[in-house]
Amino acid sequence: MMSPFLFWMFASMMLVFGVAVVINRNPVASALSLVVSFLALAALFVSLDAYFIGIIQVLVYAGAIMVLFLFIIMLLDLRVEKLRKINWIASAGGLAVALALTIQISSVVGRLGIAKKTFPPLTRSTSDDVHQIGLLLFGNYNLPFQIIGVVILVATIGAMMLSRRETR
Amino acid sequence: MIALGHYLIVSGILFTIGFAGVMVRRNIIIILMALELMLNAANLSLVAFSRFHVDPGGALNYNAHVFVFFIITVAAAEVAVGLAIVVALFRLRQTTHVEDIMSLKF
After folding, report:
1. Nearest to A4 among B1, B8, B62 (CB)
2. Which CATH class is domain A1-79?
3. Which residues in chain A have their CB less than 8 angstroms from residue B18's CB?
4. Average pLDDT over chain A, rounded to whole?
5. What are phi and psi of B97, to 5 degrees?
6. Chain segment A23-35, per-residue pLDDT in tens
7. Minimum mean pLDDT among A100-104, B5-9, B89-93: which range?
C-alpha cells in the first residue's frame, strides 16, 4: 500500500486535471489535461497493487487514445470553434445534476459498512501479476478474449469505412 | 490509513466530473473525453474492490483486472469509431458542435 500522502496527492491531481478537461475552452489543453489525469490514475492503480493495469493505462490511454484525440483535433483545426457563447442554463442544469449525483454517491458510500475498513495485507508477492492475468485471460476468460478480438477488428474496419472518401 | 471508502469516493467524484462534462460541454470531442473519464472512474472502483477482496490464502484476486482489461479494450474501440464518426460529420457539416446538428431534434 501507498502512504496516505501519496494517495491524496495523486487523487487530487487526477480530480483537478479532470476538472480542467471539462472547463478548458481549448480542445488541445483539454486533451493534455486528460493525459495528466490518466497518469495520476495509473499511479492510483499501482497503489492498489495492480501493476499490470497501471502500465496498460499508461500505454493504451496516455499513449494510444490520447494521440488519436490530438491527431483528430489537429486534423479538424478546431480553433475557430473556441469562442462561442456559454449556455448558462444548460451549464447550471448539468452542474446541479452532477452535484446531486455526488451527494448520492457519498451518502451511499458513507452508509456502506465495508467502506471504513482498510485493505487487508497480502501475504503472497504480486510481482507475477502479468502471469496470473495471462492465465485467467487464456483460461477462464478465453471466449470473451476472442470476442474482444472480433470487436477490435470490427471497430478497425468501421473506422476505415467511415473515414474513407467516396471515390466514384 | 486509506480505507476502501476513500477510493470509492474519489472514483465517484471522477465519474461525476465526467458526467458534468457530458452534460455541460457542447463540443463532441470534449464529450468523448468526458466519457473516457467516466469509464476510468468505473475501472478505479473495480480495482479497489478487487484489492479489498483478497483470496483466503492472502493472494490477490485477478478477476477484476481481467475485467478492467476488457473495459480498456472496448474503450479503445469506442474512441476509434467515435472519432471516425466525428471526422465524417465534420466533412459533411464543418462543425463538431452538437447544437449545429439538429436533424433528429424533435
Report:
1. B1
2. mainly alpha
3. 18
4. 88
5. -100, 125
6. 988 889 999 999 9
7. B89-93
Q: Quick one: pLDDT at residue B59? A: 82
Could you give the CA distance from residue B68 to residue A60 in angstroms, rounded to a whole number?
Answer: 12
* Domain chopping of chain B, boundaries: 4-100
- The rounded distance, in Å, linking the Cα atoms of A47 and B91 is 44
A53: confidence class by pLDDT, cuts 50, 70, 90: very high
Mean pLDDT of B60-79: 92
CATH number of the domain located at residue range(s) B4-100 in this protein? 1.10.287.3510
Model pTM score: 0.91
ipTM: 0.91
Which amino acid is located at A85 in the chain? K
Spatial distance between the Cα atoms of A144 and B71, rounded to a whole number of angstroms: 12
Whole-angstrom distance, CA of residue A99 vs CA of residue B42:
18
Domain boundaries, chain A: 1-79, 129-168
| Angle formed at CA B8 by CA B6 and CA B12, multiple of 5 degrees | 120
Restricting to A residues 14-53, those with a Cβ less than 8 Å away from any Cβ of B are: 14-15, 18-19, 21-22, 27, 30-31, 34, 37-38, 41, 44-45, 48-50, 52-53
- 99-118 in A: which are within 8 Å (CB) of B? 99, 101-102, 105-106, 109-110, 112, 114-118
